[in-house]
Each structure stands twice: as structure tokens, then as C-alpha cells.
Request: fold
Amino acid sequence: MTRVGSLALYNSTMKDVAGTQQKLAKLQQQISSGLKADTFEGLNGQVEQYTLLQAKIRTSERFTETNSVNIARLKTADQAMGQMVDIADSMENLITQGRSGGIADSASLIQQMKNLLAQMTDELNINFEGRYLFGGTNTNTAPVPDITTSSILENDSYYAGSNDNLVYQYDERSTFTWPVRGDDPAFQKIFAAANQAIAAFDTKNDSGMADALDLMQAGQTALNSARSQVNNTIINVQAASDRLDTLGLYWKGVSEEVVKTDLVSATTEVSNHEAILQAAFAVFSRLSQLRLSDYLK
Reply:
């Protein structure tokens, strides 16, 4: 090797040392911060993928939070309907006792039935965080404000809510309709049967009590069916929320692969660069022993 060649090697070595030191500093920063870059510029063309993943994560988290609230509402409605099933059973037993003569005092029968009607009304007027659950889209008004408006006919004269159902979105593509309102045929039948029974008790009309019993039993069947719709909706929304949780974890994992440092790979690269620097400094040490006159020859 000529002396001029040694000068070229010296310059090349110093350039390589500077470049390697920059790479080493960048890797050490990545290891200490845990991130490949602290700006989008350092993501090497993966900005679009990263921002898309972040948007998906935010969307899944938003739906998961909304679904949690809706599941709580549905469970509250289900608990209320469970109480209504018990109330309807008590109404049926009361009518049966009235027909069998188990309670001779018709005034007592009438008062007990009115009490059960009031309990049914309380359950239909249940609210969750200030929103009435059985009033359809009208969540600000008690759906059954006055039980005295109910009649012996099967109709919704007692109902003051909306005739439209609330519709909720539980993921980007799917919605569910709130499964039950206070004017559901089940409640219409139960209210009508209770009022028929009161009228029959008052006149000791066994035929009327038999008709009231048949209608009450039809209302109980419809009530159980309506409650099963609530339970099915809970299951569907919960399943959708679970899928969103799984997808969210997957998207977070992919997002971390984009921006987080691969510590094993980065540590290996640091070792390689340190070895390169050690070799470069050895060459530099050898070249630094040359005199200026060596380069001028």
C-alpha cells in the first residue's frame, strides 16, 4: 500500500467511524426509549399503517365502552323483567285463589291486585342513569305514569312512551334494536287481565275470572318471550364486544411491531457496530503512527 493510499484509507476510516457512531447513537436511543422513532419521519414509510392501526384501536375502544354501557342497561331491564315475571305469577295465583274461594273478601282481592299493578308499573318505569328503559326513544318520560288509565281491554292506553325503538350500533357494521318497550303485547295482556280480574272479583263473576286467568297466562307466556329477547340481545352485544377486545389486542400488537424497538435485534446491532468501531479505531491507531512526510512521498 502506498503512503497516498494510506491517507485515503485514513479518511475513509474516519468517515466510517462517524457513520457507525451515528447508527450506534440511534440504536441506543431506540433501546432506552423503547421506540423506533420519536417522530413519524423515523417510521420509514410506515406512517400510514401506524395511523390506520391507531384509528382502528380508537374505534374498537369507543364501541367497547358503548357496549359496556348498553349491556348494563340491558341487564337492568332484564332484572326488572325478572321482577315482572314474579309479579305476574302472583297475579295468576291471586286470580286462582279468587276462583277457588281461597280468599272470600273481594275487597282484599281487589286491593292486592291493585298493589301488584303498582309494582308492575314501578318496574316498567325503571331508569338507568336517568334514562327510562321501557319508553322506546322517549327516554325522558316515565312510560307508565298512571295505572288508572289501563282498561279491561287489551290495549296500550296506559303507555306514555314512544312507539319507536332505540337503535344502537355495537360495531362498525352492525346495530341492534332495543328489544322491548312498555307497550309490548305482554304488558297489555297482563294489565288487561288484572283489570278484568278486579271487575270479576267485585261482581263475583267466575266466568270473568276464568277469562282473566286465560289472558294472564297468555301475558305470562308473552312476557317470558320478551325477556328471552332481552337475554339474546345481551349475548349478542357481549359477543360483539368480546370480538372487538380481541381485535383491539391484535391491532395493538401489530402497532407495537411498527413503532416499538425490537430489543433483541437492536442489541445485536449495537454489538456489531461496537465491534466495527473497535476495528476502525485499531486501524486509526495504526495510521496515526504515520508521519506527514509519509503521506507526501
Q: What stands out?
A: The first helix runs from residue 3 to 33.
